[in-house]
Amino acid sequence: MTQSSKKNKSSQTSKNNPWIELIQTVITAVILSFGIRTFLAEARYIPSSSMRPTLEVNDRLIVEKISYRFREPIRGDVIVFNPTESLEAENFKDAFIKRIIGLPGETVEVKAGKVYVDGEKISEEYIFEAPNYNYGPSRIPENEYLVLGDNRNNSYDSHYWGFVPKNKIVGKAFVRFWPFDRLGSLYEQPIYLK
């Protein structure tokens, strides 16, 4: 048997062998899945009521990871982020989901049930109820963000533990896919200044 006929026979065997095809398919799927989850998007579920009414417990959503490579996060974005240093010090390991309220360089204050950014009250149609606490005024450092839960009085957020560095942001939550009766975008109301 010649060298070329051995190669042809070996290549035909791998093409006709269902186990080899299955292994190749599984390996390809794993590589694609890892690449998509790492660089493009991933599914997340909501474990708490801190984002009510926008997100309910057990809602499922897609977090996209591309847009912040081309633009800065903006006020109103619902983001998923890894624990900050202060949260890690409290032994938090799971990612958080909150809404960006304050941007780098801005001053945020919460008083009399309203949120003020650089002295201007922002409109917040999406919150569960007005905050019953005071916060600030606090100036946000460069490359960091102030985040609050939409369920202001039941959210462990920036008014407790500080700001979120940009490098901790995983991505932007943009669409809910479960439950089906709440399927759709998380951004239906224009609510922000600037």
Automatic annotation (TrEMBL):
Residues 19-178 form the Peptidase S26 domain. The keyword Transmembrane helix applies. Its EC number is 3.4.21.89. It is found in: Cell membrane; Membrane. The keyword Cell membrane does not apply. The chain crosses the membrane at residues 20-40. It catalyses: Cleavage of hydrophobic, N-terminal signal or leader sequences from secreted and periplasmic proteins. InterPro entries: LexA/Signal_pep-like_sf, Pept_S26A_signal_pept_1, Pept_S26A_signal_pept_1_CS, Pept_S26A_signal_pept_1_Lys-AS, Peptidase_S26. Keywords: Hydrolase, Membrane, Protease, Transmembrane, Transmembrane helix. It is a single-pass type II membrane protein. NCBIfam families: sigpep_I_bact (TIGR02227). PANTHER family: CHLOROPLAST PROCESSING PEPTIDASE, SIGNAL PEPTIDASE I. Belongs to the peptidase S26 family. This is Signal peptidase I. It comes from cyanobacterium endosymbiont of Braarudosphaera bigelowii.
